[in-house]
Amino acid sequence: MATNELKNQVRRLRFENGEMTQQQLADKAGVTRQTILAIESGKYAPSLPLAFRIANTFGVPLEDVFQYEKGNI
Amino acid sequence: MNRQQKIAIIVLIVSLLGLFLGITLTLMKHCIPGFPKGTVVFGGFILSLGVFLIISRILKKKKGEVISDERDKIIEKNAYLAGFGAVYLLVILVSYLPIGIAPEAKIPTKWFPCLFPIAVLCQCFAMSLATLIQYGWRDKNGDK
Predict the structure, then answer these.
(1) A40 touching B, CB under 8 A?
(2) Half-sphere exposure of A63 (CA within 13 A, CB side)
(3) Distance between A33 CA and the closest CA of chain B, angstroms
(4) How confident is the model at residue B58 (pLDDT cuts 50, 70, 90)?
(5) CB contact, 8 Å: A6 with chain B?
(6) Rounded CA separation A38/B118 (Å)
(7) CB contact under 8 A, A35 and B140
């Protein structure tokens, strides 16, 4: 589940959106607070639907929330 | 700590306790003449009732609360795989260990049904351990 190639701006966007708490974001995205915590700490890569729900919550495109860095081949 | 973690901890403790009690009572039954078999059944009943009561308290759901999301389902699926793997290894161990210890010995057939509760305990233990490891043993508190 953990990935070093996927970066995210969830924490920064939370604070930029009225200092939204993890619980508030979790409620809007339909997941548990633990999942949001795991996403922010890079321990869990969300599914596409969840990633889109998070991006829609912040009102930004998906690539503004999640960035994929190519690993070494 | 979420509901799955709480259930995993309870199952981990109960499976270890069940294994310990099972071994202890089996030894006592063989070593102490006239040991009441009803004690084993009564003890198992009390243990099962206790686990059922504890888990039913945990399973109470708050209105609107998300109980299980996609990450919880992935963790649960991996835990089931770990439980299956543990039982698979147990069966291999039970099959080959007697050959290594005493190849000419005879095993009474009445011992074979004991494999089922041992396999159940083994699966429960492996599943709960896998669940707790995947969640990270304890909830690392982040921002709320």
Answers:
(1) yes
(2) 2
(3) 8
(4) low
(5) no
(6) 35
(7) no
A27 part of contact set with chain B, CB < 8 Å: yes
Kindly give, in sequence order, each residue whose CB lies less than 8 Å from that of residue B29, ignoring residues fewer than 6 positions away: B35, B37, B40
B28/B19 Cα distance (integer angstroms): 14
| Distance (Å, whole) CA A35 – CA A32 | 5
Query: Do B144 and A23 count as a contact with CB atoms less than 8 A apart?
Result: yes
First to last CA, chain A: 20
B10 to chain A nearest CA, in Å? Answer: 20
d(CA B138, CA B2): 10
Nearest by CB: A21 against B136, B139, B143: B143
What is the rounded radius of gyration, in angstroms, for the C-alpha atoms of chain B?
19
ipTM of the complex: 0.81
At residue B69, does pLDDT exceed 50?
Answer: yes
**Predicted confidence (pLDDT) per residue in A19-68, tens digit:** 999 999 999 999 999 999 999 998 899 999 999 999 999 999 999 999 98
Closest CB to B142 among A1, A37, A46: A37
